[in-house]
Amino acid sequence: MASSLSASSSPEANDLAPASRLARLLDGRRVVALAGAGMSTESGIPDYRGPETARRARNPMQAQQFLHEPASRARYWARSMNGWPRIAAARPNPAHAALAALERAGRLAGTITQNVDGLHQAAGSERVVELHGALARVRCLGCGTIEPRAALQERLIAENPSFYRWGTALAPDGDADLDHDAFTDFHVPVCLGCGGTLKPDVVFFGENVPARVTEAAWALFDEAEALLVVGSSLTVFSGYRFVRRASERGVPVAIVNLGPTRGDEHAAIRVDARLGELLPHLAATLGA
User: Fold this and answer.
1) Cα–Cα distance between 257 and 36 in angstroms, integer?
2) What pTM does this model have?
3) How far is CA 197 from CA 151, 188, 194, in A?
């Protein structure tokens, strides 16, 4: 049975009491973090299932759409061209810094992240397994060549200046909502080496996490004597499976998230709080 702590209680309960209770559970144990999109919302990057999701609900890009529907691929890149500058400009928030501090202090073995924004590494975390890839890379589906997303951005704008618009709403895919769906005139750049189809080096909905990434994630998970879930609803199985495995092994699970999660029944402690407020207190309590 989870022990739930409400973020709507007094400020002292929000900050100090939950951090102290988490610290008592985690202290003396080798901790692995499992991070979700809630880690990055305080850096201005929206999520799919957070408290604000219903207000701006939209369907995520599906792998089969991107791969087999040229119009869907053009729509993605047109939106991505507008959303990328704000993803590239995003900076780590105090929650990212706290995980990095815990790792430097030897309190955290590493982080398995569902995020694709690179903010863990930007904050100083070194042992990071990116389950769903990284938006900063673009991969050719033909020859496998990797191109920096920043370089592709220059080509996208040069070839489609009329589609480059500021003031659009940033979306969870790292793209942006545009005012229309008329993308027939949008030119989708191809691989400079072989002319193949370019895809962001991320796992779209409907795709499997690459085997090598899964192996790296399980290897890090196997070091855990406690699993700290931060900012994930655990709706997607690629993250939830780690909580389920921890429960099967008797590894204590601590969950910090705004709102309920799929893994709450497995949690030894469940804290409903803003990560940017609670994680720095946790790091300080653990001496990081």
Assistant:
1) 9
2) 0.86
3) 16, 9, 9
What residues are annotated to the active site? 132
Tens-place pLDDT, residues 111-156? 999 999 999 999 999 999 999 999 999 999 999 999 999 999 999 9
185 is written with which tokens?
A: 């005139």
Taking alpha carbons only, the member of 56, 206, 45 closest to residue 135 is: 45
β-strand 198-202 against 253-256: which pairing, if any?
unpaired
Cα–Cα distance for residue pair 12/8, rounded to 1 Å: 11
**Residue 10 dihedral angles phi and psi, to the nearest 5°:** -65, 155
* Two structure tokens written together for 43: 């850096």
DSSP-derived secondary structure for the chain: ---EE-TTS-HHHHHHHHHHHHHHHHTTS-EEEEE-GGGTGGGT---SSSTTGGGG--PPPBHHHHHH-HHHHHHHHHHHHHHHHHHHH----HHHHHHHHHHHTTSEEEEEE---S-HHHHHT--SEEETTEEEEEEEETTT--EEEHHHHHHHHHHH-GGG--SSPEE-TTS-EE-S----TT------TTT---EEEEE--BTPPPPHHHHHHHHHHHTT-SEEEEES----SHHHHHHHHHHHHHT--EEEE-SS--TTGGG-SEEE-S-HHHHHHHHHHHTT-
pLDDT tens digits for 60-91?
789 999 999 999 999 999 999 999 999 999 99
Residues contacting residue 157 through CB under 8 Å, at least 6 positions apart: 81, 164
